[in-house]
Amino acid sequence: MAQPNPKLSIxxxxxxxxxxxxxxxESVIKQSYSNIEYIVIDGGSTDGSVELIQSxxxxxxxxxxxxxxxxxNAINKGVSLATGEWLCILNAGDRLANENTITQLFRxxxxxxxxxxxxxxxxxxxxxxxxxxxxxxxxxxxxYILHQSLVYRTSLHKLRGPYLETKKLIISDYIFxxxxxxxxFQFVSMPISINDNSGVSSQSWSLExxxxxxxxxxxxxxxxxxxxxxxxxxxxxxxRILQLLLKFRSR
Length: 251
Prior knowledge:
The chain is of the alpha/beta class. It has helices at residues 18-29, 49-55, 71-81, 101-105, 156-160, 172-178, 204-217, 222-233, 236-249; strands at residues 8-14, 36-42, 62-65, 86-89, 95-96, 116-125, 129-136, 150-153, 185-196.
């Protein structure tokens, strides 16, 4: 078993998202867990995000503000600066579930074999109503995992390299995580994060990339892939009616 109280590096990336960034920073610096290294990577914001970062002083261990080539380029910069044993990617607009989340996550020593701790999450829309939360449930076998709602060992990047950086690919974190054998994952029965659902990674084309990738790996059938993609492209009302019908039929 590893030693208790391991060091966790939390990385937040942001670009011109001052109002959302404040939610994220507050959720991190208010954690009861003491061994956190907080890293913020700003992409050259001009909306006051940099001034907000500076206002927190030493509560943010490391931060930089410079142009980057995209989301995963920014995350990779953060990874290269991290000195913790574990990593968490919590981008602007995402929050930890409560002030004791990390304390609860590392409450018990973790086997050295375990590389990823993952859990459930809540979704919300920070633009419309940040206090209305919808529960999301992790299911590793089906690929229902979110980078905000897990932590993983920093050493994985030494073995597998950085996140892929391409302009059109927005699931590099999913590809990275799905390349890890499931036996190295450990589920924790708790929500880890509250995620804003208005961001890029919450759009339908993100899910479509994930399903297509799982099809390539042989994790899902062609029929399943087509059904998921068509379902995601349906108008909201039709999608909701189908969900209700499926729920009624399963009773």
